[in-house]
Protein: LppM domain-containing protein
Organism: Serinibacter salmoneus
Amino acid sequence: MVAIALMGLLTGCMKFTTDLTIDADLNVSGEIVFGIETQALETMGATPEDVVGEAPEDLPEGATYEPLDDGTYSGFVFGLEGVSASEFTSGEGVSEAAPGLSISEQDGVITFAMDSPLAELEEESAGSEMPFDATSMVDEAWVQITFPGPVTEAEGAEISGNTARWDLTEYSAAELTATAESGDAGGLWLTLALIIVVVLLAVAVVAVIIRRRGAARRQGTSGPTSTP
């Protein structure tokens, strides 16, 4: 698969995208997509099956490995739905699709790390007979990670609230790293605050109703009385 990927890079017809969401329990959902233009494969005498290969045997529950065929690219889609980070980062399929991936949490801080796939290909290129610039030969390459809480640090990434996004054609570091709040404490306090607001509103409404009824009763009892 690496050889095919290198040929795809030489023609500038490859894409690599990662879009993952990590929840407060360190469960991961999203997908990793790798593809090479189908027309380029045919020109090189290769087939989509050469890129896809066989599905890994040790995929965790909630993970899928399917062929990509969107009319333009051929490759694979590695899907995840609520997969525990410990299982997600230990499988064979993950090591191929996202090398060096690790997700951990300590003291309310989630740490994410992943080897840049383009940097890895650059290293392979440096030792080959036909070196190439991977970043200039890729059509599309980015990694986007959404955390349960605000991102506190992510070098080389565009940060927007809970999301960090790296454009691999512009950021050439060998490793992508980010830290974010786990979101547990913030979510709890927000929930408590909403409950308090609702209770206070309810109390205020009841108080208004009681005052109105009291005023109506006083008005009724203090009105003019008839004389015989």
Notes: The CA atoms of residues 14 and 36 lie 4 Å apart.
